[in-house]
Amino acid sequence: MPRKRNLSHQQQRRIQSRQEQWQDASREEGHDGTVVAHFGGELLIDYPVDAGWEQRRAQARANLGGLVAGDRVVWREEENGTAVVVARQPRERELQRPDRYGRLKTMAANIDRLVLVIAPAPAPQPALMDRYLAAAEIHELDVVILLNKADLLDEDSMDLLEDVLAPYRDLGYPVALTSASEEDESALPEPMDDTATSIIAGQSGVGKSSLIRRWLPGTEIRTGELTRRGEGTHTTTTACLYRLANGGAIIDSPGIREFGLWHMDPDRVIDGFPDVREWIGHCRFRDCRHEKEPGCALQQAVENGELDPQRMEHYLMIRDEAEAGRTTS
Ligand SMILES: Nc1nc2c(ncn2[C@@H]2O[C@H](COP(=O)(O)OP(=O)(O)OP(=O)(O)O)[C@@H](O)[C@H]2O)c(=O)[nH]1
Ligand SMILES: [Mg+2]
Ligand SMILES: [Zn+2]
């Protein structure tokens, strides 16, 4: 799929100044590290040692802006023995999700792949799936859809889920079936068995942390502050990075409970929907809103069965949210 990436001058300048900060910090005997998690005011970082990875707590210099799981940093040990993060490398790919005002906040940085988890329960919400997938497309992430809790599937629920999944299979996203409660087999699903950094995301309660627990037996799974969901289970509140034995990494992320607005950059929403974008530029009116205009190529594609009506609906919905975000912020 063709990708477009236009950085504004301001963005370019910001990246350049971060690059300079990074180089200065490295020259001053800093060590390379990666942010594992940022909870409360505290950072956890890791860095490579001979036998693998070591973790330590760290503080951040105030001028660095927000630091998130996956951020590559330079840190130094102060005389009193504390670790201080002194620079942040410019971010490559990130995943954003909205805060409660609908503004997008970066959740994790330098990731290659979105692993979108769905389950028979809680039931998948395609409107939410499309928001995550659009965010992944915009940031040029690979995508894998994982259908978890396969142990709960029966014929009826499988039919239902196949209907949900059909448009995504058509779009070319790989779909894998898995279950966090099977104990005999702990291998990663095949599309994830590489050295990439994945972020695992989706609705709250679909089993993201349980999957990581199964893939990494013996590892303490951090959920941030202890918010109890039910007996013995904790909902994740902070993104947290885990190293995989094969050289890859996986970032657990807090699930969405109720979703509201996603105020994306209005000019980029179309890049989140490659299947819709294909029809852009063929409408009768150049300023077509693709709603009820005559000669709309997108509506025509829906009518001809060449564009999924639900994808079209979600595109228009997210575009409208994005535009509303621009006028209110
Ligand atoms: N039957 C079954 N239950 C599962 C499976 N995976 C997870 N669960 C259960 O689903 C519940 C939620 O699991 P979590 O791993 O905490 O879900 P999460 O996606 O991390 O949720 P958030 O952190 O809130 O986003 C727990 O009670 C798990 O035991 C599975 O494969 N099968
Ligand atoms: Mg979790
Ligand atoms: Zn149109």
TrEMBL record:
Q: What is its EC number?
A: 3.6.1.-
Query: So where does GTP get bound?
Result: 148-151, 202-210
- Which parts of the sequence belong to the CP-type G domain? 92-259
Cofactor binding remark = Binds 1 zinc ion per subunit.
Q: By its UniProt entry, which InterPro entries does this protein fall under?
A: G_CP_dom, NA-bd_OB-fold, P-loop_NTPase, Ribosome_biogen_GTPase_RsgA, RsgA_GTPase_dom
EngC GTPase domain location: 109-257
As one GO molecular function, the record gives: metal ion binding
> Quick check: keyword Lipid metabolism in the entry?
no
Q: Name the cofactor(s) required for activity, per the record.
A: Zn(2+)
Instruction: Name where it's found.
Output: Cytoplasm
Q: Which GO terms describe its biological process?
A: ribosomal small subunit biogenesis
Q: Which residues form the signal peptide?
A: none
Q: Which residues bind Zn(2+)?
A: 283, 288, 290, 296
Q: Where is the composition biased (Basic residues)?
A: 1-16
Q: What is its main location?
A: cytoplasm
Sorted UniProt keywords: Cytoplasm, GTP-binding, Hydrolase, Metal-binding, Nucleotide-binding, Ribosome biogenesis, RNA-binding, rRNA-binding, Zinc
Segment Disordered: which positions? Answer: 1-30
For this UniProt entry, what's an example GO CC term? Answer: cytoplasm
Identify the CDD domains for this entry. YjeQ_EngC (cd01854)
What does the similarity note say? Belongs to the TRAFAC class YlqF/YawG GTPase family. RsgA subfamily.
List the HAMAP family.
GTPase_RsgA
What quaternary arrangement does the UniProt entry report? Monomer. Associates with 30S ribosomal subunit, binds 16S rRNA.
Give the protein's function. Answer: One of several proteins that assist in the late maturation steps of the functional core of the 30S ribosomal subunit. Helps release RbfA from mature subunits. May play a role in the assembly of ribosomal proteins into the subunit. Circularly permuted GTPase that catalyzes slow GTP hydrolysis, GTPase activity is stimulated by the 30S ribosomal subunit.
Output this protein's name: Small ribosomal subunit biogenesis GTPase RsgA
- Gene this chain is encoded by: rsgA
